[in-house]
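Colleagues,

Please find the record for the two-part complex below.
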Amino acid sequence: DAKTTQPPSMDCAEGRAANLPCNHSTISGNEYVYWYRQIHSQGPQYIIHGLKNNETNEMASLIITEDRKSSTLILPHATLRDTAVYYCIVRSDGYSTLTFGKGTMLLVSP
Amino acid sequence: DTEVTQTPKHLVMGMTNKKSLKCEQHMGHRAMYWYKQKAKKPPELMFVYSYEKLSINESVPSRFSPECPNSSLLNLHLHALQPEDSALYLCASSQEAPGADTQYFGPGTRLTVL
C-alpha cells in the first residue's frame, strides 16, 4: 500500500471548516483513500473513503485531486467533539489490511 | 448498525495470569482483526481472521493466542504477558467483500500488565 504524509497537528476554530490534507504521491490505480479518526482512548471511527471521485457523507467531504496524489478531508462546521487524531490511509481493493501512519492531531477550540 | 463490542473495557493482570479479551459483531462480517495500540502511537495489526480461519499473523509472540469460535466472535487469549504488553487492544471487522472493504472498530480493551 502507498505511503501517506500528513501534518502532525492542526488547529481549527469551532464552527469553521476544518481542511485536513494528505499526500499520497505513490498511490496506484486500484488504491482507495480512507479516512479514520480516533478520539482520545476510543477505537478508530470510519469517516469516509474514495477512489477517484469526490465523496460526501453526513460526517465529511473527501476531495481527491485529479492526479490522485493528494486529498483533503473537509469537516464543514467543526465542533469541539471533532478534536481527534485523523488518519489518512491508502489501501488496495480487496482484502488488504489497514496500515496506520502517525495521523494529524486536530484541535478544535472555542 | 456498525457496532463492534469488546469486553472487558479495562483489564489489569499479573505476568503469571491467564486472561481473555472478547470481541463480538453482528453485522454479518466475515473478516475480524486484532490491533494493538501503544500510548501515543498508531494502531498496529496483530491478527486477521477470514471466514473463521487465521489468515494473517504479524509475527506476534505466542503469549498472544487468537481464537475465532464462530463468525461473530473473536477472542484473544493472554498468558505470561510482560509489562511492555500494556496497551489498548482493538478489534475490528469487515465484510471481506471485493472493492472497498471498510473496517469498523470496537472501543478497545485497555490492558495493564503488572
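Chain B touches chain A at residues 2, 4, 6, 31, 33, 42-45, 48, 50, 56, 88, 90, 92, 96, 98-108, 110 (CB under 8 Å).

Comments are welcome before we finalize the supplementary table.
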